[in-house]
Amino acid sequence: MEMLANDKAPPDGVGSIEPPTVSNRQVLGAVTASCMGWALDLFDLFILLFVAPVIGKLFFPSEHAMLSLAAVYASFAVTLLMRPLGSAIFGSYADQRGRKGAMVVAVTGVGMSTAAFGLLPTVGQVGLFAPALFILLRLIQGVFVGGVVASTHTIGTESVPPSWRGAVSGLVGGGGAGIGALLASITYMTVTMLFPGDAFETWGWRCMFFAGIVSSVLGLVIFNSLEESPLWKQLQATKTHAKLEAHPIRTLFSQEYRGILLVNILLTIGGGSAYYLTSGYLPTFLKVVMKVPAGESAALLMVSSLAVIVASVAAGHLSSLVGRKRSFLLIGATALVLLPLLYQWLPAASTMTARFVYTASLSMLGCAGFAPILIFLNERFPTSIRASGTGLSWNIGFAIGGMMPTLASLIARTPADLPHVLGVTIGAVTLLYLAGALIVPETTGRLGDS
């Protein structure tokens, strides 16, 4: 049995092209590689979020605990700011030379740079040189992270039939995030057991970062037998599209696509902000606001990660059933009502069951919003610039969204202020997400452009 990776009808302005035929094995390999590549990438990023309070003490010490925490999240935002550069570099390579090569180099680079954090000296050892080294390494890591997005966010959706593109979008974008967070939660639980108490602040946090080596090795194993995207191979075989004459980045910022890029970013800012203010902030919220023990916190985050995988796939598939635009509006309206309330309810939760329900609900709603964004972005660009366009749209929006935890930490004078600050902030960014959803066109079924 074989599947069609392309839509039957060519887009406007493109001649009739026979859709490439893709085997089930190739589909499974592409989806697995795309999902796990993004999961391993986010696993490396989540490690910092899990050890943020410790990193704050060791690299950004301050008498004001919230300022120290804000500095850690600012270093996280620095990585996000470098992601557009990574998308430009690796996205151009993926559009011109293929998705697979870009993915292998980018994922390996993220893992190796993550492991390097475990070797850094602290402020107590080398003074101000320590935070400078930390931020420099974050900048390098950000370039590779941007490259992962450009490759993983295209090869999976380009390889599956139209009816499954929404579900795969959710599986890669939100599901990959959930798997990455789950792996980080398991690592955190294991390391805190091996290095309890003060030992975690001495060696445990370093071992968390050393786990990045594992992600690099896994990435190489997974990608070794990966086949190239069928749509990209079809494009190389025809060589008929006029835009192949121009560099992908130059084409992307031309008058034809500049407006599309800007509108995409509006939507991704909302989706990215919601993600970082929920799944991204939960590890810190549980420890700093609720004083949840490390073991219980890891369990809560693992359950939330599993819930995210289910919710993301469901939200992505919903976009195939009702359309991308309508799914954005439905999910955004639900999040606008529930997310601010959940942050008020969570600190007051008196039972383990209630904490499980609230943390899982926060994570699910935060990720459901961007689950259909991946396929939506893919459908906004032709194959010749898809990796660059998708990568830049996603990374610029998520870079701005990634600043929201830093902003929330600075606004909150004490940890007790965080539930209210986070509720207001997430309500505001959800309104932005809805504004973007109202502006963007429906794109379902438009991936077949070459």
From TrEMBL:
PROSITE patterns: MFS, SUGAR_TRANSPORT_2. InterPro entries: MFS, MFS_dom, MFS_trans_sf, Sugar_transporter_CS. GO terms for cellular component: plasma membrane. It is found in: Cell membrane. The keyword Transmembrane helix applies. Its main location: membrane. Keywords: Cell membrane, Membrane, Transmembrane, Transmembrane helix, Transport. The keyword Cell membrane applies. One of its GO terms (molecular function) is transmembrane transporter activity. The chain crosses the membrane at residues 42-60, 66-90, 102-120, 126-150, 171-191, 203-223, 259-278, 298-316, 328-346, 358-377, 389-412, 418-440. Residues 30-444 form the Major facilitator superfamily (MFS) profile domain. It is a multi-pass membrane protein. This is MFS transporter. It comes from Ralstonia pickettii (Burkholderia pickettii).
